[in-house]
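REQUEST ID: PR-0412
SUBMITTED BY: lab tech R.K.
PRIORITY: routine
TASK: structure prediction, single protein chain
INPUT:
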Amino acid sequence: MSLIRITHLTFSYPGSYDPVFTDVNLQFDSRWKLGLTGRNGRGKTTLLRLLAGEYPQNSIEIRDHPRMFPCTVEHPGHSVAAVAREVTGDTVPDWMLERELSLLGLGETFLDRTFSTLSQGEQARVLLAALFLQEGSYPLIDEPTNHLDAGGRARLGDYLRSRRQGFLLVSHDRMLLDACVDHMLSIEQTGLSLMQGNYSDWQRERDRRDARELAENARLTREIGRLQEGARRAAAWSDKVEKGKYATRNSGLRVDRGYVGHQSARMMKRAKNIEARREKAAAEKASLLKNLETAEALKLHPLEHPAACLVRCRELSVCYDGQAVFAPVTFELHGGERLALVGPNGSGKSSILRLICGETVPRDGLCETASGLVISRVEQSPDRFDGTPGEYAQSYGVDKSLFLAILRKLGFERVQFEKQVSDLSAGQRKKLMLARSLCQRAHLYVWDEPLNYIDVLSRRQIEELILQYRPTMLFVEHDRAFCHAIATDTVELARP
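STATUS: complete
OUTPUT:
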């Protein structure tokens, strides 16, 4: 058994005043298939980088040889086989490369292809295969499903489940985590939480914990109110009795001041006891709900277009180097519909989105959009921007206050509004793009893999938003649960 130990870890990035981790303690077995989850910006990628030794820490003890995914490819113009050997740092025989690639759905013909010509999903699978070919390594896998199609995600789950060695996997894909992990690690608001089981096991336990704490919080709220009222009445009676010691004796009766004072003291003591019980209940209440993740409702204000049909495509096919990327497709998009483009990596889904957004894309067939159509677009890769989130909003001409309010609902802390966009995590930068799109009033929302890097809680918020406001959408997304929930129809792209 090889244990990975983290003892009293406190870490901030150089030049940052905002700590990512404070006095973290953790121990786990490197043989576990460990899933890591948490809201964007909580430090998931940072934890992987710390374990990989990018920021050496005396508080981390790891005996295995950690290796990160994704990794930098120094020579993307080389063949797939050469890039894989570059990553492994060894002369891995072709048959081993072919075996690993076939398990991830890539044929032996891929070995001789130029790495840079592969789609992002294909490149990811090549790098994952190379990662698991490194003897004695401990894989640190950061969001491998980005840019993978549904079939690729299913194969990845099977592949990771079949590995003998353990790994640490960061992913927001619930189906992938259920398919391949046996332990879950969660970065919560107050620290790290570790448990045995897959994502669904973790979510059920979390829901039970939140339900218990909400019920206990409600009980303590009622108890505190009752005690406050009891303390108020007891104090009032004490004051009234105490004043009675010095009242004028018009009746001629003698007042026993000692007895009255004793009664007053008893009432005051009772009031103090009630107050102590109230303070104890308040302390118990304060310890609850610190890790409760809330998801406030988002709002969207789409525009209505007078035309019934907003997009019309007839026998459309995108062509590169004279070759069609997909078999010709015909479809229409009407107001209120949400159309999902479905197909394997490299089948031309993003090319159709770019064409509809007005970019020049070589094609055959017809592609028309309604006159005066206003489009709000979210692209695959997170925006890179020099400036703060507020300056990002101003550069796009969207309402800054509304933009920042949406980010708050998506889990941003106020301190992150002062950071440079380049210093934010990929998930946080993707949320900037989504918040900007949600601020824009448009007839059509064109989103290309909007959930890449986005945490599960935010995915649910976005799903609920779309179902409530029913905007007209054309989108590409490989999260099967999301597509099933919001798409009114699909267009499947097949190889020619």
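NOTES: The chain has a mean pLDDT of 85.
REVIEWED BY: pending
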